[in-house]
Amino acid sequence: MKPRYWFFSAIILAFLLAACGGGGDDEGGLQGSNNTSVSSNDNNDDSQTNTETNNDTSEDTVNTSFSNTPSITANERVIPAVAELDGTLVFVQGDMNADHLLRGTGGTIYITQFDGSEPEPLIDRVFASTLTLSPDKRYLVFNASEGRHRYVYSLEIATREIHQLSLLSNQFGFVNGWSPDGEWIILTAFQQGVIVTRLDGTSSFELGPGASLWTTDGQVIFFEIANFFQFNNPTPPEIVAMQVIDPATAAATDVDFEFDTSNTNFGALIANAEAAGFDVAPTFQVSSHFPATFLTEDERIFNVQGVTGPDPNSFFNTPPHCGQWQMSYAGGAEDIFLDVLDTAFISDIYREAERVFYERWYFPDCELAEENLVVALESVVPGEDPQVITDELYPGVDINLGFLRANSGRRYAVSPDQQYVVWISGSLASNNTKLNVTHIDSGDTITILEWQSSNSNTFLATEAINAVFWIPTP
User: Could you tell me the pTM of the whole model?
Assistant: First the structure.
C-alpha cells in the first residue's frame, strides 16, 4: 500500500496555523531562570473499531495502582510525591501565541520531579506548539520570542544550557528530523523553507523551499520543490532537484537520476532517496500535531492517513469532520492495524516498541459544533483492540473548526517505564487546567496539578498547561 496522506499539506496547515495564531513578538526579552544560560548563534544576523474507555476519574474511585492519592491545592505549582512515579516532568504553562495582547511572559517551561518540590522555571516567552523532545531525551527544541524577533532555541536538560539556533521571519520552525548522532536537526519554516542547524548553535544554514531527510551516515538529502507554500496556486508541488549536503561544511552535491517528481508524499521521498542509493535514517513527522508518515527504526514506513479525505479541491487539504482514519505499516491492506470511523483527526502520534499512542479528535454522532468536540487519548498494539485512556484531553487554547487544530503543544506523555501516562485536561469555558496521571493497564487516575483562573486572557497566556513531556531523570 502506497501511503496516500499528503505530507506537505500537513506542513502547509502547520504554518498557516502559526501565521494565524497571533504574533507574540513584542519588546520584551527572553527570560531564563537563575540556573539557565542563553547563548546566541552569530550565524543568524537578522471499518469501525470499537474501543473501551477504562478511565474513571470520579472522586469515589478507589485507585489500586497508587499507594497514595495525593492531596493538591489549586494554584499551587507543586508536584506531589507519589511512590510509584519516577522520572522528570517537563511542562509548559501559558503560551506566547496567546500573549500578544498582554505582552507578558507567555509560555514558561518548568521542570520537576515527583518529590513534592516546586517546579523550576527554565525559560519563558515560549510558543508551546513548537516544543519538541529529542529522541535521546536530552534536548528540548522550541520557538520563543526575544524582543521583536522569534528564534528557535535548544535546551540541554541536564545542564540547563540554552542555545539560539535560528532567526525566524515571524513564523514557526518545526523540527523535521534529528541527525543519527543527535547533534543536528532539520527545521521546516513557512517562508524560509528547510533550515539545517547544530544543536549547540555554532552552525546554521538555509536550503530554501523543499523537504529533507537524514541519511544513516549523517548527510542531508534535500529535495527542492517547486510551487511549495504558494497560496491559491492550483499547480501541485513538484520535485525539481535533489542534492546531498554535508552539514559540517554546507557543501552540496547534485544528484541526477530518474525519480518520481509528481509525488511529494513523505513515503515517496524515502523511496526516491533509497532509489538514488542512500540509506535513510529513521525520520519523524514535521510536527507531532499532524498525521505521520515516517521511517521507523526497523525500516518500516509507518503511516497514518485520512481515508475519506482530504478534499483535493481544498487548498488547505482539511480533513472531513466525520471521516475514516487508518494506521498502518506500508506494504498492503493486511498491514492496516487501526481503522476508525466518525473521526475528524488523529494527531500527536508516539510509538514505543509496538504500542502506538495518539490523540483522536471527533464529534459524537458527527454533530459539528465546537462544544461537542472530544479529544481522546488512545493507544493500540497491532493485532489488538485500541484502548481509550481518557476522552477528556484539553483541546487547546484556540480551536478553529475550519482547521480542526489547536495552537498548543503535546497533551500527554508516557512514563519512562511505559506503565503510566500524564495528560492535560481542562477547558477555556471553565478557565481550569489539570495535569493527571493514569495507570495504563488499570485506568486508575490521580491529579497532580490544578490551576483555576478567573480571567480568560491570563488563563490562556500564562496559566493553562499546554504541553508536557516525561523523561528519565538526567
Answer: 0.84
